[in-house]
Amino acid sequence: MRVCLLTADPGHPLLAAVSDLLAPDHQVETLDPGAEGPGPDLSSLADVYLLKARTPRALALAALLEEHGAPVLNSAAATARCQDRVAMAAVARAAGLPFAATRCVAALGELAAAGVPPGPLVIKSRFSRRHDLVARADSAVRLRELAADWAEEPVVVQDFVPNSGWDHKLWVVDGQLFAALRRSELAPDGRGPNLPLPAAELPASWTAAALQVGDVFGLDVYGVDLLDAGGAEVGVGDAGGAAGAPLIVDINAFPGIRGQAGAPEALAALALRIATSGRAVSADERKVTQVSQK
């Protein structure tokens, strides 16, 4: 089989591990969506493409490959659905997923000009990308500080939900669940390393929500960021005890899934299965949302 990685970083630990697993018996190639020069040879397509990129050029390339019959994992449209956090929240909440209430503000400067917030807010760039904005603001002073650097940034706003201070990072590869704990990116001391969290110890409602995301968004490889919004205080020693209600705060197509035993094997097996069976992509599925990278 010919497996092509659509990425500018084939050395990423997950992709490198998958390549090592496949290389003895299969041909692994790399295509950088951002590279200058001629595009792919559409008369000689790979058996499957792994879309580990989310720029507009990457999405356009993935859509082109799909139009010519190539299976792309995840599809261009499914990947695009996770880029616009307004659309993401609307799709998730319409499907009954426990997604945080999210509203859109055209520019962060407008929010800062409104003065004192009604309560602690979590502010994120509307369009998910590398080095985007994710911050907490409890005061007008903090809003003005953020606006000094991000005044024209389209943002989404979520009410800050009291929680344990730990993000529950859940990843799914072809229905197989992996999990870890990480300090919230809003934590003043930084995120720090991932901590082990056996997926089998997650409450059934958490597992069900994570798996439902794949069905709702049409994703095979994805990540779900969950908070324990049940109100119980959870210390470092028992941070994995996710006993409260799950609250989804973000969804990512094809995340890094670093340090998860079995994840590269699951991804390699999925790639070969899709390469062998192919995947029919409907006309509606090929409609890729236009995503800004402002």
Write structural notes for this entry:
- 29% of the residues lie in helices and 23% in strands.
- By secondary structure, it is α+β, with helices and mostly antiparallel strands.
- Helix 1 crosses helix 8.
- The strands form three sheets. The chain has a five-stranded antiparallel beta sheet. Strands 2-1-3-4 form a four-stranded parallel beta sheet, sandwiched between helices.
Q: Would you summarize the structure shown here?
A:
With 294 residues, this protein is α+β, with helices and mostly antiparallel strands. 29% of the residues lie in helices and 23% in strands.
Cα gyration radius (Å) = 20 Å
Low-pLDDT segments = 231-242
Look at the structure and give the mean pLDDT: 88
Count all strands and give the number: 13
| Sheet/helix structural class | alpha+beta
- The H/E string reads EHEEHEHHEHEEHEEEEHEEH
Tally of helical segments: 8
User: What assembly state would you assign to the polypeptide chains in this entry?
Assistant: single chain
* Sheet with the most strands, sense and barrel status: 5 strands, antiparallel
Query: What amount of the residues lies in strands?
Result: 15-25%
N-C termini distance: 38 Å
User: What proportion of the residues is helical, as a percent range?
Assistant: 25-40%
Strand order of the largest sheet: 11-10-9-12-13
Shape: globular
